[in-house]
Amino acid sequence: MTATERAVRAALFDLDGTLADTPCAIGRLLVRVCTEHGRRLTPEQARSTIGTPLEAAFAELLALPATDPEICRAVRRYRALFEEDVLDSGRWLVHAGVREGLERLHEAGLPLAVATSKIAGSAHALLDAMEISAHFPVVIGHDMVSRGKPDPEMGLAAATALGVPADRCAYVGDTTVDLRMARAAGMLPVGVTYGIGGRAELTALAAPVGGAVHDTFEDVVDTLLLAERAAA
């Protein structure tokens, strides 16, 4: 079964790298905060942690236990810098085609949600800054679940909040962690190549279960609408 044959009644999205063109800014801030804490990193090292909760990212980058007080300080510093340096340019962080694509999905009546490794407050702030928050009545952040991606809890919570069975949801993301969560939750995995993940690694997770990988958000929307029509 292909993605265009799978019946879908709702679409869930990752945020950073999928809707928001933030990975470069996030990587820059991770490097800056780690430098302030005495550990020098390359942008590539920082980028490899994007998509995981900040506590886990800094624990890996600073080589400290996630419970270490220094991790808490690094997370607070990062969030303050993100608000100062990134949110002010939020309107320009929307990936190409996202604004128009969300309008198409809204007009088709497809329920939408965000499930992200950001905490809920940060996710809402970014969606507001990007001026697309009206499309997402449901936003599930990392702080709203006990286990983050790739555990299915976050995706299942979003599906429940939308009132749609998980196996009738698609999850769109740019990392292997996103697609692993989608598969664990029984959702249709849809990958995008313009974020963090590469085509080969995303396809390896999406294709075996009828998912898809696309280079543009317009193609993502086309797939979701075809799958939505299959559910009619």
Write the layout of secondary structure elements.
Blueprint: E1 10-13, H1 23-36, H2 43-47, H3 54-62, H4 69-85, H5 98-107, E2 112-115, H6 120-130, E3 138-140, H7 153-162, E4 169-173, H8 176-184, E5 188-192, H9 199-206, E6 212-214, H10 217-230
Parallel strand pairs: 1-2, 1-4, 2-3, 4-5, 5-6
Helix pairs in contact: 1-4, 3-4, 5-10, 8-9
Rg over C-alpha atoms, rounded to the nearest angstrom = 17 Å
Give the helix tally.
10
CA-based shape: globular
Strand order of the largest sheet: 3-2-1-4-5-6
| Helix percent band | 40-55%
Strand-pairing-aware structural class: alpha/beta
Strand fraction? 5-15%
What's the average pLDDT?
93
| Biggest sheet overview | 6 strands, parallel
Total number of strands? 6
If you had to describe this structure to a student in words, what would you say it looks like?
There is one protein chain. With 232 residues, this protein is an alpha/beta fold. Helix content is 46%, strand content 10%. It is built from ten helices and six strands. The chain has helices spanning 23-36, 43-47, 54-62, 69-85, 98-107, 120-130, 153-162, 176-184, 199-206, 217-230; strands spanning 10-13, 112-115, 138-140, 169-173, 188-192, 212-214. A six-stranded parallel beta sheet has the order 3-2-1-4-5-6, with helices on both faces. Strand 4 (169-173), helix 8 and strand 5 form a beta-alpha-beta unit. Helix 3 packs across helix 4, helix 5 packs parallel to helix 10 and helix 8 runs parallel beside helix 9. It is globular.
